[in-house]
Design goal:
This protein has about 290 residues and is an all-alpha fold. It has one domain. Helix content is about 80%, strand content about 0%. It is built from eleven helices and no strands. Helix 1 packs parallel to helix 9 and helix 4 runs antiparallel to helix 5. The two termini are about 15 Å apart.
Length: about 290
């Protein structure tokens, strides 16, 4: 079941990112988060109150830390996308966020079979390839070659820094939420969403980002709300995945979510996929087959 739960979490995370990204094209990213984060928190908290049973304090502490790490990571990630090349920030973040919890899993004694190792490596490579986005260069076209190279380095270095920082935060989120799973499923998901909401809404208030419901269309609001609901559901399925099998496998499968975002953009928005992204999707399919063999 770890494969099923992990892939469902990937689909939900990827769908949430797609809707959140679509909404962020019409409003500031932090403004969108002021809607999506509370929406997810409300629905998952209501579900926990109705079906979550008793809450265990120890596990909820991990959930609180995980939500804070995830919220901070999302802020750093969006800041990095604005300040550095997307083609650097996104794959570095995706790789670091996966390698950290997988390394912890291996250190703590998880020993999957050879095909699982090969499938995991294929999925790691796929995550990086799928996360590579195109986009216009930030360098002035009129500069000579050497000057362009010098001007590109600061942006690339910043991109790596933002990618590593956000990836570490996302990796801690995955790791902490796994430990929080001992307290059940719905309560850890609810508490992590609440703590993440506080971080994200607090950041929006700090920088003066207006709420997304001001001056935006109903379509943008609907996308932001749906993004929050899907993200909260993804948290719950990720916790289920970590409880159903090995942490490393759950993280690798869940981290395939960028592929879902890319596919949705291709199907629903008609965006062109780069060759490297198509290769990443093919490699992801191979990796999933090997992991489940």
């Amino acid at each position: 079941m770890v494969v099923v739960f992990g892939l469902v979490a990937a689909v939900l995370y990827g769908s949430a990112d797609f809707l959140g990204g679509a909404a962020s094209r019409r409003a500031r990213a932090l403004s969108v988060l002021t809607v999506s984060a509370p929406a997810g928190a409300i629905i998952i908290l209501a579900a926990a109150l109705a079906f979550g049973g008793p809450a265990r304090v120890a596990g909820l502490g991990w959930a609180l830390a995980g939500g804070a790490a995830g919220g901070a990571g999302l802020i750093v990630f969006y800041t990095g996308l604005a300040a550095g090349p997307m083609s650097v920030v996104a794959p570095v973040s995706a790789l670091v966020s996966t390698v950290l919890p997988v390394s912890v899993a291996l250190v703590t004694g998880e020993r999957p079979g050879l095909t699982v190792y090969l499938g995991g490596l294929a999925c790691l490579a796929a995550i990086v390839l799928v996360s590579m986005e195109g986009g216009a260069s930030r360098r002035p076209a009129a500069q000579p070659g050497a000057a362009r190279l010098r001007s590109a380095r600061p942006g690339a270095v910043r991109g790596v820094g933002y990618g590593v920082a956000s990836g570490l935060a996302f990796g801690l989120f995955f790791l902490f939420l796994r430990y929080a799973g001992a307290a059940g499923v719905l309560w850890p998901a609810a508490v992590s969403r609440l703590s993440g909401m506080i971080i994200m809404v607090g950041a929006a208030l700090w920088v003066g980002a207006p709420p997304a419901w001001r001056g935006t269309s109903q379509r943008v609001l609907a996308a932001a709300i749906a993004s929050g609901l899907l993200d909260a559901g993804a948290n719950a399925f990720y916790i289920l995945a970590t409880r159903a099998g090995m942490l490393g496998m759950a993280v690798v499968l869940t981290s395939l979510y960028p592929g879902v975002t890319v596919l949705l953009a291709r199907v629903l928005l008609g965006e062109r996929m780069r060759a490297v992204q198509r290769a990443g999707l093919c490699l992801a399919a191979i990796g999933v087959v090997l992991v489940t063999a």
